[in-house]
């Protein structure tokens, strides 16, 4: 599940002339009129409707990170809605929009337990994709369709709010009697929605429970499947990261189309510790002179053992004691920043980028907008000065993120700096007032815990100008 992206200019290949060119105002697949069977009232209601009839509490108690779940749906309304999310005809129309092999499309087939990639260079042509499906029995893997399909944007944006983590997707279109990928496991939690046709799935016990990376496993190593079933249109399948799986389209089915929704990549407790430990050690070093003492000469040329190991263990125990006593502040800066900078913007963002309501005054009552799309971090001021770094409060949000770049690879330094510049910076003294706004449904500006009226007004004006505050 790749993260971040660097925006690239896409040029349409001259060889694509046999694909119908869409008018410039129809750059995305048009929205379907099929009624939704999901509830979009809130992130929680969206997830609950996705996994019904299993309740949310039951799902996380019995299945999440534990075992697979296959939900069979016999109603035509769910099958019709799932099909409207993405189908083969959508992909054929999208070929006129400058799709590129590797970046947008992979053409693959599993032969004798090995993945064979049939990609070409340059732009994707609909006629060539059709030929690969029919003649080569290849699977078409389409990356991140939420960039083009509004309903998938709507679903994944809500799921990112629900999980507090990035949610990517891929579409797989596989012809009959064919398999696209060999048996493998992923480093993400996977939800599979069967959109068209039928597909046989075989799942196996993990060789690496809750795996932190992707890997292919040999048939000899994985043993017999623990689950073997057919997904019908409208069905949903969930399995935890590390679950070994493979799937093929049975005979008699023209083609199968399924959507994978994936999340929780690098979201473990270990990842969180890697994120918060540097700042905790830095804070401790400011007050504990023993942490600032130099290591032994030539230590880097030898192994760390004996008394050196004991000394490091003592530092860690002391740090753990301070954490238990509430003497340490936890700052998950990098994970928060990575999430908010790379996630989807709010659905229908073009209506959200102007301030809401009247300009706030000291007499007003206000509330935050898009709480699920903003994070507050405390980090050292990045301004270059000769003085020691001071901590500042940064408010980051995803209102101006580019949907077209979502989950499309590593972003360059220039783009990341541009994203960071979207944040608002405040003195550390403003942290409590910002937390007040986060926790309250509504709050009088006069009640903000800041020392002066000027500071209160300055804070709400900054948030209002960034479209993060609404005046009631």
TrEMBL record:
GO terms for cellular component: nucleolus. It catalyses: L-histidyl-[protein] + 2-oxoglutarate + O2 = (3S)-3-hydroxy-L-histidyl-[protein] + succinate + CO2; L-histidyl-[ribosomal protein uL15] + 2-oxoglutarate + O2 = (3S)-3-hydroxy-L-histidyl-[ribosomal protein uL15] + succinate + CO2. Its cofactor is Fe(2+). Keywords: Dioxygenase, Iron, Metal-binding, Nucleus, Oxidoreductase, Phosphoprotein, Ribosome biogenesis, Transcription, Transcription regulation. InterPro entries: JmjC_dom (IPR003347), NO66-like (IPR039994), ROXA-like_wH (IPR046799). Residues 1-11 have a biased composition (Basic residues). One of its GO terms (molecular function) is peptidyl-histidine dioxygenase activity. It is an enzyme of class 1 (oxidoreductase). Residues 144-280 form the JmjC domain. Pfam families: JmjC_2, WHD_ROXA. Binds 1 Fe(2+) ion per subunit. PANTHER family: MINA53 MYC INDUCED NUCLEAR ANTIGEN (PTHR13096), RIBOSOMAL OXYGENASE 2 (PTHR13096:SF7). Belongs to the ROX family. MINA53 subfamily. This is Bifunctional lysine-specific demethylase and histidyl-hydroxylase. It comes from Scomber scombrus.
């Amino acid at each position: 599940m790749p993260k971040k992206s660097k925006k690239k200019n896409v040029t349409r290949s001259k060889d694509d002339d046999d694909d119908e060119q869409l008018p410039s105002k129809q750059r995305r697949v048009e929205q379907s009129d099929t009624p939704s069977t999901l509830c979009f009232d809130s992130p929680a209601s969206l997830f609950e409707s996705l996994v019904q009839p299993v309740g949310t509490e039951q799902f996380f108690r019995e299945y999440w990170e534990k075992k697979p779940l296959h939900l069979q749906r016999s109603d035509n309304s769910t099958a019709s809605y799932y099909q409207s999310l993405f189908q083969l005809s959508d992909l054929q129309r999208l070929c006129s929009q400058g799709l590129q092999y590797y970046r947008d499309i992979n053409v693959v087939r599993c032969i004798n337990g090995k993945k064979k990639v049939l990609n070409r260079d340059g732009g994707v042509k609909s006629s060539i994709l059709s030929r690969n499906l029919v003649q080569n029995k290849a699977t078409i893997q389409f990356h991140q369709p939420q960039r083009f399909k509004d309903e998938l944007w709507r679903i994944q944006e809500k799921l990112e709010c629900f999980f507090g983590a990035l949610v990517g997707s891929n579409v797989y279109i596989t012809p009959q009697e064919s398999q696209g990928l060999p048996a493998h496991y992923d480093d993400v939690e996977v939800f599979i929605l069967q959109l068209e046709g039928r597909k046989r799935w075989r799942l196996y016990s993990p060789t690496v429970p809750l795996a932190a990376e992707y890997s292919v496993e040999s048939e000899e190593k994985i043993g017999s499947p623990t689950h073997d079933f057919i997904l019908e249109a409208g069905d949903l399948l969930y399995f935890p990261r590390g679950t070994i799986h493979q799937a093929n389209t049975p005979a008699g089915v023209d083609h199968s189309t399924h959507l994978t929704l994936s999340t929780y990549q690098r979201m473990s407790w270990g990842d969180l510790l890697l994120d918060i430990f540097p700042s905790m050690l830095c804070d401790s070093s400011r007050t504990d002179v023993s942490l600032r003492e130099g290591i032994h000469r030539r230590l880097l040329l030898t192994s760390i053992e004996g008394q050196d190991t004991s000394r490091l263990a003592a530092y860690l125990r002391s740090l753990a004691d301070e954490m238990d006593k509430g003497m340490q502040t936890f700052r998950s800066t990098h994970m928060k920043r990575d999430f908010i900078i790379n996630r989807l913007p709010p659905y229908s963002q073009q209506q959200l980028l102007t301030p809401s309501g009247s300009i706030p005054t000291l007499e007003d009552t206000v509330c935050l907008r898009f709480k699920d799309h903003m994070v507050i971090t405390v980090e050292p001021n990045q301004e270059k000065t000769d003085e020691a770094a001071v901590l500042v409060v940064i408010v980051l949000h995803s209102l101006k993120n580019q949907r077209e770049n979502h989950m499309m690879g590593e972003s360059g330094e220039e783009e990341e700096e541009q994203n960071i510049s979207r944040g608002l910076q405040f003195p550390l003294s403003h942290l409590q007032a910002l937390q007040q706004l986060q926790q309250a449904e509504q709050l009088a500006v006069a009640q903000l815990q800041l020392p002066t009226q000027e500071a209160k007004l300055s804070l709400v004006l900054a948030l209002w100008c960034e479209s993060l505050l609404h005046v009631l």
